Hints:
The protein is an alpha+beta fold. Helix content is about 55%, strand content about 20%. The strands form 6 sheets. The chain has a 4-stranded antiparallel sheet. Strands 3-4-6-5 form a 4-stranded antiparallel sheet. A 4-stranded antiparallel sheet has the order 12-9-15-16. α12 (about 425-450) packs antiparallel against α13, α13 packs parallel to α15 (about 525-560) and α14 runs antiparallel to α15.
Amino acid sequence: MKTNWWVRFSVLLVLIAAAVIVLLPTVMKFDENGSYPVKSKINLGLDLQGGLYMVLGIDFKKVYRDEIQTSARKIESLLKDEEIGVTIGALDATDPMDPKQAIALNKASDMENAKKKIKAIFGNTIRITKEEGDKLEIAMAHAIKTQIEQQSVGKSIEVIRNRIDEFGVTEPEIIAQGEDRIVVQLPGVRDIERAKELIGKTAKLEFKIVNDTIPPQTLQAWMEKAKAAGIVYKKGERFSEYIKKMNEFLVKDIPEGHELAFEKSPTHDESLNIPYVIEATPRITGDDLADARVQIDPQKNQPYVSMEFKTQGSKRFEETTGANVGRRMAVVLDGNVYSAPMIQGKIAGGHAQITLGGGANFNKTMTEARDLALVLRAGALPVQLDFLEQRTVGPNLGNDSIEKAKIASYIGCGLVFLFALVYYKFSGVIAIVTLLLNVLFTVAILVAIDATLTLPGIAGIALTVGMAVDSNIIIFEKIRDEVRKGISSYKAFDMGYNSALWTILDAHITQAAAGFCLLNFGTGPIRGFAITLLIGIAVTVYTAYYVSKILYELYMEKTDAKELSI
């Protein structure tokens, strides 16, 4: 027997051993925390193990409103540095897709200088839509709106993926659908509400100064007025929507440049929510945040979220606290006031914290603190996402699919094996062995690269088995042709394999080209099918040609190549 045969056979044995080692945790259901060196198990997709399917929509109206208000605050800071006094006025959202922000100058004589400064710094992002006396009005440039629309979906997908990765979901599917939709599939998720909370939480952190000139009696009168008009928080409604309706209803009562916000009651009792009148434009935002971690208050034995600001954010925080000693600063997350401590003095060092109200349930508070730190650390969503569609896929559906796939596989393999044995005799045994190794290697590679197995993926495996059978048939028929010519068995074997090689490569290269197109242009299950198909094609070429050739050489060596059972 040739020396290189032993080398090829040894490589085959090593590959088989490696595949078995990789698949053992899945087959034997090993504990991932156990001592077995390989921790990977096969990942099942949403259609096989159940989970959560959601379609999220983007509210660009709110994006534009927030963007123009933030720009107004930057302009205010810029002009004050130039010793031009300004006051941020009311927001005109008559056209919600093109909101306009009013800015009043303390001196009308500063108008030309102010316009010059705004155009010099914000010329490409802001346009001045109106100028009258000591007042001007700004709006976003159309090019910036287009840029926001293009970037919002991509940035949202990135943030959602970061949050889900920390949440511990294996192989989530997060893809864009159109210009303002995101599809999220979370296989294996059981805590649906917590997953939705993590994904949908905008995590828009803002620090705003509280207007304490409004007496509590006035605030209470506003609440009664809104309640009498039928504006109440309804269970299942987004709290942000309730806040929006309250601000729209009380727009004439709330001082200009301010808005209404609430500190929600831990018992979710609307009557116990604490109202605040706060500045509409934040002094510091989550963009200034560098890190967020959970800490334990040693005195109260309650978790809280400790925040650390970036260099510029730390500077702004120090300036804001220094300029507002004796006033309260509200820590606002997604429109909800988490706390509103009194500023006792200038706070340096770039550190702040969010308290979660305590409560008797330490574990629940700890979970809330961890989730809050997670979304702050993973990044704030650039836009508010609305849940447009939600489907919970039960694991029973996946179990049914797996069982039916098993039955179909057993029947299909049985028929193929029977055909190979009857039609090709002992050569059919070699074909069966290569088919089994084909499936073994394909599944092992899927596990090794941490891919997710879905129903389309199972279809891809079935397709590769069919291709492997086809490759064996090509080889055996080539050998038969040579035998019919009266050529010796060993020469017929050698010429049959050599002539079949290019036919097999040609067929599989064209299939691989189609697979790469599916992988590049497809999404979701199509990509899963393409990955399985491409892996199967590479494995099929190896097993159908090289492995079967090794086994055939062993067979011919044992029979002295006198007669081929084919």
